[in-house]
Every structure is written in C-alpha cells, then in structure tokens.
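I would love for you to help me understand the pair of lines that follows before we discuss the fold together.
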Amino acid sequence: MSSVQTRHRVIGLYKELIRLGRDYPNPGYNFVPKVQAAFRASAGLTDQKAIDEKLALAEHVKNETLALISLSKYRYLRRTYCVPIKDTIPDVSLENTNK
C-alpha cells in the first residue's frame, strides 16, 4: 500500500475513533485524549509492517468501542421500556405444591 493510501486510511480511522468518542458510555474514561495520545505516539512510524499492526489494533479498538456503545444503548432502552422480569413471573412457593 502506498504512503498516500496509508495516510488516508490512518486519518479516516482517526476521525472515526474521535467521532465514536462522543458516544462513549463512560465520560470519565477520557476516550478521545487517549486516542489522540496513541496516534501521536505512533506518528513517527515509517516501517510499513509496524504501521499495519497499529492500524489493525486501531480497527480492533473501533469495533470494540462500537460494541460497547451498542450494548450501552441497548441496556438504556431495556431499562426504559421493558417490564422487569420479576414482575412477569408468578410467585410460586413450595408450600402450595405439597397438598
């Protein structure tokens, strides 16, 4: 892959991670500054193999973050709109079964 293509891929992935950071469920984790620091630390890489490894790691972080955000939204919707399970199960005690 040429350096121009790699550069565009890195910038695109960086922008995606920054956008995902807006929806990160735990604001105390400081997701965006950590992404920025990780990309700054890898800015001087010139070896294509090392760059590809870092890009693979960033893709993995992106996928895990998407899963975490989706899970957080699902849990919020479930808490908001679903009936608690304990209210739907009838109360059956062992005393009534041995008549």
